[in-house]
Structures are given as C-alpha cells and as structure tokens.
Design a protein that fits this description.
This protein has 315 residues and is α/β, with parallel strands linked by helices. It has a seven-stranded parallel beta sheet with strand order 8-7-6-9-10-11-12. The protein has a five-stranded parallel beta sheet with strand order 2-1-3-4-5, covered by helices on one side. α1 crosses α9 and α3 packs across α5. The mean pLDDT is 97. Bound molecules: NADP nicotinamide-adenine-dinucleotide phosphate. NADP nicotinamide-adenine-dinucleotide phosphate (NAP) binds next to α3, α5 and β7.
C-alpha cells in the first residue's frame, strides 16, 4: 500500500525513478506504463502530462503531484479522479526561472541581438544604451515565479510593474490586477514578461490587440515580449504580425501553442525572435524528488499537503 506511481510522457521516467530509489529505497515505486503492478496499492502519482485515464485506474489514489509548477497538463485528463492536485514550488525551479527572465530582459535591454548581427557582419557601431531605470518590465503573473523575477529585476535597477488576477502589494512594484487593470499595466510596459499559467481565462490573452497597448514611445524604441509561462496564452500569428508591423521590437519565446514547435513555423527564422525549447525552468529530479517526498511524508504524518491547486481556477 501507499505506493508511488511515476507517470510521465514526453520525458523519461528513468531519472525520476533513480532519484526516488536513492532517496527512499524503502518505498514501493511503480512506473507507468509497464510496471504499475496492482493499481489498488497506488496512493500517490507523480506526473507530467499523464496519459488520460491512467490516474482513474488507481482506486485508492490520495494525491496527484505535478513534477512541474504548472498543472494544465493534469487537468486535460477528462477522467481525473477527485483527489488533491499539488504543484511544485521549489527554490531550484524558482531560481532557474529567475535566471531566464533576467537573461532575456537584459538581452533585449542591451540590444544583444543587434550586436550579434553586427558581429557576423564585422560592424563596429555603438547603439544607444538606456538606463535600466528608464525601462519598465511588466510581469504578467505575480505568483511564486513572477514575484521572484520582479525582485531580481528591481535589484538590477529596472522599473517593475506586475499584473495578477487578484490585488497584490509588492514593495517597489507598480501592481495592477484583473481585466480593469490590464490596460494601465500594458501602457507602462517596455518589456512584457509572461509568467501566467494556462487556464481558460488566460487562453489566447497575448494577441495583437493586447500587444498594441504596450508602451510605444519608451526608451527601447519599441516593446519586447518574453513568454516563459505557457504557449496557450499566446496567439502566434498575432505575435508574427506584431513583429512585422513594428508593434513589437522583438520577442523571446520559450513556450508555444503546440510543442515541439513545428518545423514549418516562421518563428524559427524570424530575425526578431529568440526561441528556447520550453526549458526556461527545467524540472530536475535531483532537486525536485526531495520536495515531492517531503510532501508525501508530511501528509502521511497527518500534516496538510502544500501548494494544492484550486481546480476551479486551474492553477
Ligand atoms: N517555461 C518553463 O520552463 C516553466 C517552468 C515553470 C513554470 N512555468 C509556468 O509558469 C507559470 C507560473 O508559475 P508560478 O509558480 O508563478 O504560478 P503561481 O504561483 O500559481 O502564480 C500564477 C500567477 O498568475 C496569475 N494569474 C492566473 N490567472 C490569471 C488571470 N486570469 N489574470 C491575471 N493573472 C492571473 C495569478 O494571480 P493571483 O496572484 O491573483 O492568483 C498569479 O499571480 C506556471 O503555471 C507554468 O505554466 C513555465
């Protein structure tokens, strides 16, 4: 009883299994699809994009643990059993996302793509260099990841604004919330950083109409977009139009409407686009299995599960 199931797709279960065996050799560990054993024994499922219906096969399941911060990949299962779904909140993941956001904000702020192109053409020419304080980075999503990124960017000297679903108060950050707060937030923003979850409310939010509301006369000469949240929040055809008509000066995209990004996507070769393969903040077993075991052990000792997702909000 109280077996832990590892059910992942699109990534190998092997490093997760190895780490569980190292840290908890006494635990009964099962692996989807071939080694589920007697499914009545399975109490916990550690999942990434679990195949639909797999969790419903476990009648004594007590909790589903997402191996990532996002849980949209769990809620797509129409047969998801009514047990708590918890997500990862871990300093390792938060730090990785902070690195990614700072890297790409600075890349756009310091026009590094321009200097890369100039280097290839052996051009020695200095462009303008606005102060960080003259640039506002607007972060959509002031959750665990967004708040950490805001703090790092503020310490580098950027002006920082943030937008969330419910009202937030963060020192040194101009905060906005809800549909009513969105336009004011966008009007301030030179570099838009999206760290939103994928939910029915955020689907397709980053479209041409939204991008046209970003600050037009800012220190960078045009706004930039960085999306490291989820691809479902963006309309890629609109991002391409915005890049081509000058609405956007450039974009960094880590996530896409469909992943992996299709060979045929014009984003691959667009001169204003930087692409990374959904690795802004990787879920690394060496760091995160300890976190999941701690959740399970606390729960078995009678304590509460932490970071339980609200299924109605979807994050
Ligand atoms: N690319 C990668 O490698 C990678 C890695 C990890 C995570 N992610 C993505 O990053 C997302 C954020 O992670 P997190 O840990 O920061 O999540 P979180 O703590 O749950 O924060 C989510 C934030 O989004 C806001 N939000 C949700 N729905 C909204 C809406 N309709 N309108 C406005 N704001 C809304 C929330 O507002 P409230 O504060 O008002 O609730 C909250 O501030 C994850 O869901 C995942 O999709 C990507």
């Amino acid at each position: 009883m109280n077996a832990i199931l590892i059910a992942v797709t699109g990534t190998s279960p092997e490093p997760w299994e190895r780490r569980f065996r190292t840290l908890a050799p006494q635990r009964d560990l099962r692996v989807w699809p071939d080694r589920m054993g007697d499914v009545r024994d399975i109490a916990y499922a550690c999942v990434w994009k679990p195949a639909p219906g797999v969790l419903a096969r476990c009648p004594n399941l007590k909790a589903v643990l997402s191996v990532g911060a996002g849980v949209d990949h769990v809620f797509t299962d129409p047969d998801l059993p009514p047990v708590p779904v918890v997500r990862i909140v871990d300093a390792d993941l938060t730090m990785r996302m902070g690195e990614y956001v700072v890297l790409h904000v600075l890349m756009h702020h310091r026009f590094q793509r321009l200097y890369d192109a100039q280097q290839r053409a052996r051009v020695w020419r200095e462009d303008r260099q606005p102060a960080a304080s003259a640039v506002t980075v607007g972060i959509m999503g002031l959750g665990v990841l967004g708040r950490h990124a805001a703090d790092l960017l503020r310490r580098i000297g950027f002006s920082v604004a943030g937008w969330s679903r419910t009202a937030k108060s963060l020192e040194g950050v101009a905060t906005f919330h809800g549909a009513d707060g969105l336009d004011g937030f966008l009007a301030l923003t030179d570099i838009l950083v999206c760290l939103l979850p994928s939910t029915p409310d955020t689907k397709g939010l980053i479209d041409l109409a939204l991008l046209r509301k970003l600050k037009r006369n800012g220190a960078l000469g045009g706004p930039f977009l960085i999306n490291a949240g989820r691809g479902a929040t963006q309309v890629e055809a609109d991002i391409l139009s915005a890049l081509d008509d000058g609405t956007l000066a450039g974009a960094t995209l880590d996530v896409f409407e469909s992943e992996p990004l299709s060979d045929a996507s014009p984003l691959w070769t667009h001169p204003k686009v930087t692409i990374t393969p959904h690795n802004a903040a990787a879920s690394v077993p060496s760091a995160l299995v300890r976190n999941m075991l701690a959740q399970i052990e606390r729960f078995e000792a009678g304590g509460p599960l932490q970071h339980v997702v609200d299924p109605r909000a979807g994050y």
